[in-house]
């Protein structure tokens, strides 16, 4: 039974690593989008004040 557990743990570890990479990518996209939207808002507010 321990022999079956090793491949399963390796599979699970590979899946977890892949999911972590996807999650990091999603977080970076969200942060980047927020920065771009913040810059757009700053430009718009400067334009409205002028």
Features:
single chain, 50 residues, mainly alpha, 1 helix, 96% helix, rod-shaped
Short description:
This protein is an all-alpha fold.
Run of helices and strands? H
Q: How many β-strand runs?
A: 0
Integer-rounded radius of gyration: 22 Å
Helix content: over 70%
Please tell me the overall pLDDT.
90
Largest sheet: none
Helices and strands in order, then pairings?
Elements: H1 2-49
Textual characterization of the structure:
- The protein is mostly helical and 50 residues long.
- The protein has 1 helix and no strands.
- It has one helix spanning 2-49.
């Amino acid at each position: 039974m321990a022999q079956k557990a090793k491949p399963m743990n390796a599979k699970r570890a590979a899946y977890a690593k892949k999911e972590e990479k996807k999650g990091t990518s999603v977080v970076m996209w969200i942060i980047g989008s927020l920065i771009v939207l913040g810059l757009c808002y700053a430009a718009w507010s400067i334009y409205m004040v002028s």
